[in-house]
Amino acid sequence: MAVLVETSMAYGREMIHGVAQYLQENEPWTIFFEHRSLQDPAPPWLADWRGDGIITRMAPQLSEVVLKSGIPTVDVDDQGPKSPMPNIQSDHEAIGALALAHLRQQGCERFAFVGHPHFGWSVRRRDGFVAAARAAGRRCDEYYSENPVSWGHQQASWEAETEKLASWLGGLPKPLGVMACNDFVGVQALDACRRAGLAVPDDVAIIGVDNDVLACELAYPPLTSIIPACRRIGYEAAALLDVLMKRGRPCRERLDVPPLGVAVRHSTDITKKVGDPLVAKALRLIRERACDNLCVEDVLAHVGVSRSALQRRFRATLNRTVHDAIAEARLRLAKQLLVETDLPLPDVAHRSGFAHAEYMSAAFRLATGSAPGAFRRENRKPHAQA
Q: Do residues 99 and 46 share a domain?
């Protein structure tokens, strides 16, 4: 079997992990796999290859060769409903709706979308975002690149577009919630805000898509991002290809896989809407240091007021205690690590600020009603429908 999916971006790599998981749970296949980018042409060996199955993105440079081969194929491309092959992809409208919901939870009431008009996945993410904004009775402004960047290979275009985007964002009413069509456009929007003198997230809150951890954490400030269920896409594609190779007919023609959730980082910092500046200062410390054995006394020393005064202001502003806020921050990080990594539970507990895995499990059960292991399985393990 051939897996022709890009390895240059987190989205494609996560899909390949899903394929690998299916093979671990079922009979193994002999896999032909090579490092690729989204723009790579069809490999020269593909025209004469006589394999049993293909998982690929049916991009223009690949589709003709793949169709001529006659080999059972599952398409994992995101260009819309026009694929000639059985297709598994993200539910991009749901991704857009989730981005809008997250920004509204942060208190945003004005919205904008930044994307690429010629990519089907970008258009569908915009459609979901705009539809959710309209359903909430809110307006959404839209910006589209005139000279789209080829994932960082056209630096001159990136510079020119960033200047235009900075001017456009500067002219919109603030505060503003912005959805970028993916994380790389989100990084560009962060750069545009710096050039325009706009504070993130105080003036502009920005959310990207794909949760490319390297890009998101290198960004300044770190970029909040929607987590697509890429591993499930790969898993479902492998399950469907298994059926195609055995039966010669698909069990389904199309599956849109909803996103897993939101990886919350500083670019949509919830503290920006806290009215009490002392509480906001405390929350920033909690956000930044909750995983470092932070305790209530550390927060008190940072803000310089008594315990009773801070607790009273926390209850009046947030209807919870300082200890509750620390616990919530740790749980949020633990959930992210459970979904995004394969770390064992003791390591997840340590990195999230819990003294022991048992403490984390108790807090998890109290807050969610389930154990950390069950949460990981429910949110990461794909459910094959083959």
A: no
